[in-house]
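// run 5 | inverse folding | seed 20
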């Protein structure tokens, strides 16, 4: 049976996912509720595991956030009630920022990945009233091992086409980045970002209503992220204006199974 469980400490467990035993550690504070239970035995979802961690940013933080290079002066739960507001500031994790003489990004707002290192998952968030106008103001999702190994899926003011707003997927391994950019519509006031991991493949998608998602593609990354979460920053360039990025929520869940191919009709 499905259960809703509230944890007040770290809970370690083993679950069956597709016939494989996976270890799980859930790190929570006192009030957050996580849905973590086997799927119902309906003949279609056997051996699937349901996992849901949701952060509402309502007055206080509930999950085990451990921001990298935390700067409390640029983070607020009260400036826009019901949202986490992160003010962008100069800082980057792009390529070898130290060799380039650029400051490392602050407020990588991440938490320990509570699933086994090879487990699939979905992370998502909603950005509201974020208006990037200068390179490289950005905000979005982050799967993070360290500053040189990560996957980032964000909304930003990019370098492409001599400077435009775009969605950007950055995969970095051993300080070597790879980029994908997607054009965005004008006057985008609110956007949902979703990143789905299946094995080494990461599917990146967006939505303007939180219901219908446009999948823009899938790219491979070899890492196993230690941490997952969100970020908002300006990149390594000096003199870029600091602006607010408002996150309505953050959610992590087990993904649905990938769609199965339709078998060809029997020929007669």
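// decoded
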């Amino acid at each position: 049976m499905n259960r809703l469980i509230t944890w007040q400490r770290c809970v370690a467990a083993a679950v069956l996912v597709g016939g494989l035993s996976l270890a799980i550690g859930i790190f929570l504070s006192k009030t957050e509720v996580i849905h973590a239970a086997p799927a119902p035995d309906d003949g279609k979802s056997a051996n699937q595991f349901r996992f849901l961690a949701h952060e509402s940013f309502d007055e206080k933080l509930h999950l085990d956030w451990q921001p990298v290079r935390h700067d409390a002066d640029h983070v607020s739960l009260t400036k826009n009630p019901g949202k986490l507001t992160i003010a962008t500031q100069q800082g980057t994790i792009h390529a070898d920022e130290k060799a380039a003489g650029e400051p490392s990004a602050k407020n990588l707002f991440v938490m320990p990945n509570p699933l086994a290192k090879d487990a699939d998952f979905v992370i998502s968030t909603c950005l509201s009233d974020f208006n990037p106008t200068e390179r490289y103001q950005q905000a979005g999702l982050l799967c993070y091992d360290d500053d040189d190994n990560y996957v980032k899926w964000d909304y930003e003011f990019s370098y492409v086409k001599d400077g435009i707003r775009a969605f950007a997927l950055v995969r970095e391994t051993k300080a070597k980045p790879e980029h994908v950019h997607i054009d965005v519509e004008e006057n985008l006031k609110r956007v949902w970002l979703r990143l789905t991991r299946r094995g080494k493949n990461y599917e990146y998608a967006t939505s303007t209503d939180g219901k219908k998602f446009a999948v823009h593609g899938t790219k491979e990354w070899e890492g196993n992220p230690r941490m997952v979460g969100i970020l908002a920053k300006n990149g390594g360039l000096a003199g870029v204006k600091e602006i607010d990025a408002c996150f309505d929520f953050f959610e992590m869940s087990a993904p649905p199974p990938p769609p199965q191919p339709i078998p060809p009709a029997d020929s007669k």
